[in-house]
Amino acid sequence: MLRVDVIDQRIISRLVADARSSYAEIGKAVSLSAPAVKRRVDRLLETGVLRGFTAVVNPEALGWGTEAFVEVHCQGNVSPDRIRQRLEPLPEVVAAYTVSGAADAIVHLRAANIHHLEDALERLRAVDMVSRTVSTVVLSTLLERPPAPEPGQ
Amino acid sequence: MLRVDVIDQRIISRLVADARSSYAEIGKAVSLSAPAVKRRVDRLLETGVLRGFTAVVNPEALGWGTEAFVEVHCQGNVSPDRIRQRLEPLPEVVAAYTVSGAADAIVHLRAANIHHLEDALERLRAVDMVSRTVSTVVLSTLLERPPAPEPGQ
DNA sequence: TATGAAATTAGCCGGTA
DNA sequence: TACCGGCTAATTTCATA
């Protein structure tokens, strides 16, 4: 049900590189007809291997020039689902993870500027379960890329 | 040159939600003809507001089940560009940022499993400029989403 | 806006495990 | 039988002018 063969991986690679390329074009690269490619893509979407297709936007161009990673420490035992529920309404949260170690979660924030970031941090700290936060402001983005289609190991 | 109006924002929203939707479909939503939408999208790509289109893959489905954030401490003064050059060859690095604070950089790693992650960490630590690393293993992903088309502030 | 070219998509058939 | 791919045709979409 979650079988992904070599051809699927090559199709995924193509779609990761350019999600708007046509099935015919992809088919030429993997020696398949366009309908065959569509069938595989539909199956990959259905089985959840592919979650969808999206545009990659330049955050700075949209006025999201400032970002930070925030370690969130919670008081008491909090379920991951409850943390997610509280973080979801904050529009500045672009990603959040529960983690091992001292902190309970790592939250990736994006804001228009330092003042906006400060404001977002304040709202994050105001979430009832949050007891302490440790922020690390991003100075520059060195690298951002999708995971390779097949794990190296 | 980097002007983005309200209609552009709505087009970007649509493309972020589904990069494979047709220009005609987007046009219907923003009350524009398909060629008009195409002109705007082309312009957004040219000015760098849109970087491209990509498929969102389920990392677990492809065997990338383990991830970690790593604080990297470097010895001496190292330029961001040099750090990027050294990180780029490591396929497990999906994102990297220079940051303020004690650490010099934060690296987002994705691996097939804990053993693979350990292996990748070892290769990261072997990079000459790296003096110390602090790893935080991700237990679960609470949230992952693109930034909203317009900043809240 | 309109027109030719290209892509999408559903249906049908054949080969194979 | 179930699965997978190719082929065809109707429709939609694209990219010109």
TrEMBL record, chains A, B:
Residues in HTH asnC-type domain copies: 4-65
Molecular function terms from GO: DNA binding
Alphabetized InterPro entries for the sequence: AsnC-type_HTH_dom, Dimeric_a/b-barrel, Tscrpt_reg_AsnC-like, Tscrpt_reg_AsnC/Lrp_C, WH-like_DNA-bd_sf, WH_DNA-bd_sf
Organism superkingdom: Bacteria
UniProt keyword annotations, A-Z: DNA-binding, Transcription, Transcription regulation
UniProt protein name: DNA-binding transcriptional regulator, Lrp family
Provenance organism: Actinokineospora diospyrosa
